[in-house]
Design a protein that fits this description.
By secondary structure, the protein is of the alpha/beta class. The chain has 13 helices and 16 strands. The protein folds into 2 domains: about 40-365, TIM Barrel, CATH 3.20.20; about 370-465, Sandwich (Immunoglobulin-like). The chain binds alpha-D-glucopyranose (GLC).
């Protein structure tokens, strides 16, 4: 497997982004294909129940926080890619103080943003854990001035605000000497992709060491599953070994025993509950449940020099596009080593909150809207499919139009605004093709980020799909 295999598809410029996106993209493609090929290990109704909150949630906040949060280099990749030495990278632990860590404020901010869940890095690829794991000294309590478990207060604060708890966990662990002990099945040792000493065995392979690593991996997962009972375990870093080497099939069963209601993302080979496209918006709606993970600027963790922040409007658009295709947005922020959240992240979350709260009915609990071409913007539908929400990213020039609606229209209005005049014009009844629904939208009703128009229908939406006879 080449680390650059998918580079042409990376939507982000520069080496740093390509190196992050490539393995994850590959993981996504593999996962996506396999999710369809093999249903999850539990019976379908139980899985649907476990996934219900996730499908309705629409917005989550991703938190990359660890010893890299000093802001001078990327999370874990900095030493893997040789930007710094392993020793210098790990020495950053001495500035990981968590002295301004106020999880209650975090949770309130996430709620204000309109998020229904959050996912924090309990352990990134560097192997440094934020909880006081008994299985390694590399953790916030034993290995940094923070001097305590940081995961318990995070879980408590989120739950107090009614938010679901997610924990990110890196399968691979570039600090564990037993990790780089066995190559992926069929890998060719002379391939340059397998020369990184942190990821692959140097010299002879050692199956005994790999066995020890799996015991450690399971041990840490058991700790966080039983202790924190996360609603969501967000795996990453499965790409360096095969599903069989990881024994993911067995792991999925174990996870359900340790934490029966927990769901998992699609980065434990083919055994996840949903797909995780990363940093790019899918062009067509994925068929299985999904969540886009994307950063507020270009970095997962805090990086002093990264000023390439997205605007509130751009984040609103990402969120609306995800919801319009039936997915969620997991928007990533990077707190500093002391636990404070940079002002730019706070501003984006607050701005997003203004929009999400006003348009809650169009967002939470909605399902994917109508296909592109019927309306030029994102759309969502109520679960009963009798209310259609049109999300206008561009300023309507007096009117917006939507095609293909066979139902009678009962009422059109702006969400959080006035009732709107509308009428269908044209159509070819002899071909069963309805007219275009034209809706008048006055300037005064526009939202500064994205105006949402509510179309109430008589009965569940019936969409025209084309003339019923050849023309
Ligand atoms: C990639 C990166 C990792 C980041 C993750 C978030 O897999 O390897 O650094 O945590 O994306 O999805």
């Amino acid at each position: 497997m080449s680390m650059n295999a998918n580079q042409p598809f990376s939507p982000l410029p520069g080496r740093a982004c390509a190196r992050l996106a490539a393995p994850a993209l590959l993981a996504f493609l593999l996962t996506g294909a396999c999710l369809r090929a093999e249903p999850a290990t539990q019976a379908a109704p139980a899985q649907a129940d476990r996934m219900a909150w996730f499908r309705d949630a629409k917005l989550g906040i991703f938190i990359h926080w660890g010893i890299y949060s000093k802001g001078v280099g990327s999370e874990s990749w900095a030493f893997h890619d040789g930007d710094t030495t392993y020793e210098d990278y790990m020495a950053q632990a001495s500035s990981f103080t968590a002295s301004n860590y106020h999880p209650d404020e975090w949770a309130r901010l996430f709620k204000e943003a309109g998020a229904r869940y959050a996912v924090m890095t309990s352990k990134h690829h560097d192997g440094f854990a934020l909880w006081d794991t008994k299985l390694s000294k590399l953790n916030a309590k034993d290995g940094s001035p923070a001097g305590r478990d940081l995961v318990t207060p995070y879980c408590e604060a989120l739950r107090k605000e009614g938010l679901r708890v997610g924990l990110y966990f890196s399968n691979l662990d570039w600090s564990n000497p037993d990790y780089a002990s066995i190559l992926p099945t069929g890998a060719n040792r002379s391939d340059p992709a397998y020369r990184n000493r942190f990821g692959y065995p140097q010299g002879a392979e050692n199956p005994e060491a790999w066995k020890r690593f799996l015991a450690f991996h399971r041990g840490q997962l058991r700790e966080i599953s039983e202790r924190f009972k996360p609603d969501l375990l967000w795996f990453d870093g499965d790409w360096e070994r095969t599903d069989e080497q990881w024994q993911f099939k067995e792991l999925r069963q174990q996870l359900l025993q340790w934490n029966p209601n927990g769901i998992v993302n699609g980065r434990i080979g083919k055994y996840g509950d949903y797909q995780t496209p990363e940093q790019y918006m899918p062009l067509v709606a994925p068929q299985s449940p999904w969540e886009l993970c994307a950063t507020v600027n270009d970095s997962w963790g805090y990086q002093i020099k990264d000023r390439n922040f997205k605007s509130v409007r751009q984040c609103v658009r990402m969120l609306a596009e995800c919801a319009g295709m039936g997915g969620n947005l997991l928007l990533d922020i990077g707190p500093r080593s002391d636990g404070s959240i940079p002002d730019e992240d706070v501003a984006v979350l607050r701005g997003l909150g203004r929009w999400t709260h006003k348009h809650a009915e169009a967002l939470y609990g909605s399902v994917a809207g109508i296909p592109a071409g019927y309306f030029y913007g994102a759309t969502t539908l109520s679960k009963g499919r009798d209310t259609l929400y049109l999300i206008c990213f561009d300023r309507p020039n007096g009117q917006v139009a939507v095609k293909g609606i066979m139902n009678d229209v009962l009422r059109t209005s702006v969400v959080g605004g006035p009732v709107l005049a509308s009428r269908k014009i044209g159509g070819a009844p002899w071909l069963n093709m309805p007219g275009v629904l034209w809706i008048d939208v006055p300037e005064s009703a526009l939202d500064p980020d994205a105006t949402v128009i509510k179309v109430e229908l008589k009965g569940p939406l019936i969409l025209a799909t084309g003339p019923v006879r050849k023309v």
